[in-house]
């Protein structure tokens, strides 16, 4: 695997996509805060971010709807270190253990890391639910519709077009950055 050249900030590395979600404690603010923290983290250069999306919860329906987005980054961090950084950001933002698919102040997931496939204890890339989730594929397609899922060889747009998940995902008029 080759690394991409340096960005204007001098960060070299792999282009990766990070899923962002929140449904408690002012989720729009939490998602913005997470993107800002990603952009300030050493070894990461924030390239772009999607719009915010209001999404129907997967799993328990007796919870608030989520706000979701995707960030495109360039990182010099190997996958395990990137995951550690994301977990540290979650902890600093107040994330606590919660039931699977339950309410959370912030959730940060590595969706894609270049064309790498990783299957280790505690780390699976591409994200194992990526191809099944409208709330991930809609914002990913906004940024990179031609990004290829390395395990399936299908673009993000192709995955979205084939999706059977009919949950509601609404693009918001609220900007990711600013008010």
- Percent helix, as a range, is 25-40%
Alpha carbon gyration radius = 15 Å
Main β-sheet: number of strands, strand sense, barrel status? 6 strands, antiparallel
> What do the pLDDT scores average to?
91
Structural class: alpha+beta
In brief, what are we looking at here?
This protein is of the alpha+beta class and 179 residues long. 25% of the residues lie in helices and 27% in strands. The protein has helices at 27-40, 79-92, 134-143, 156-162; strands at residues 14-22, 44-49, 53-55, 66-75, 107-113, 118-120, 123-125, 148-149, 154-155, 169-171.
Describe the structure.
The protein is α+β, with helices and mostly antiparallel strands. It has four helices and ten strands; from the N terminus they run E-H-E-E-E-H-E-E-E-H-E-E-H-E. It has helices spanning 27-40, 79-92, 134-143, 156-162; strands at 14-22, 44-49, 53-55, 66-75, 107-113, 118-120, 123-125, 148-149, 154-155, 169-171. Strands 1, 2, 3, 4, 5 and 10 form a six-stranded antiparallel β-sheet that branches. A two-stranded antiparallel ribbon has the order 6-7. A two-stranded antiparallel ribbon has the order 8-9. Strand 8 (148-149) and strand 9 (154-155) form a beta hairpin. Helix 3 (134-143) runs antiparallel to helix 4. It is globular. The protein starts with 13 loop residues before the first strand and ends in an 8-residue tail after the last strand. 37% of the residues are buried. The mean pLDDT is 91.
């Amino acid at each position: 695997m080759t690394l991409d050249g340096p960005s204007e900030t001098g960060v070299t590395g792999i282009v990766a996509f990070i899923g962002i979600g929140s449904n408690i404690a002012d989720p729009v603010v939490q998602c913005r805060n997470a993107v800002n923290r990603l952009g300030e983290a050493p070894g990461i250069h924030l390239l772009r971010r999607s719009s915010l999306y209001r999404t129907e919860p997967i799993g328990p329906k007796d919870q608030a709807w989520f706000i979701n987005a995707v960030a495109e980054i360039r990182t010099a961090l190997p996958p395990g270190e990137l995951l550690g950084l994301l977990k540290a950001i979650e902890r600093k933002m107040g994330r606590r253990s919660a039931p699977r698919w339950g309410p959370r102040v912030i959730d940060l997931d590595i969706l894609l890391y270049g064309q790498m496939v990783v299957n280790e204890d505690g780390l699976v890339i591409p994200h194992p639910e990526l191809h099944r989730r409208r709330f991930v594929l809609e914002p990913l397609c906004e940024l990179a519709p031609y990004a290829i899922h390395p395990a399936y060889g299908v673009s993000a747009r192709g995955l979205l077009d084939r999706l059977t998940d009919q949950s509601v995902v609404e693009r918001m008029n609220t900007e990711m950055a600013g008010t």
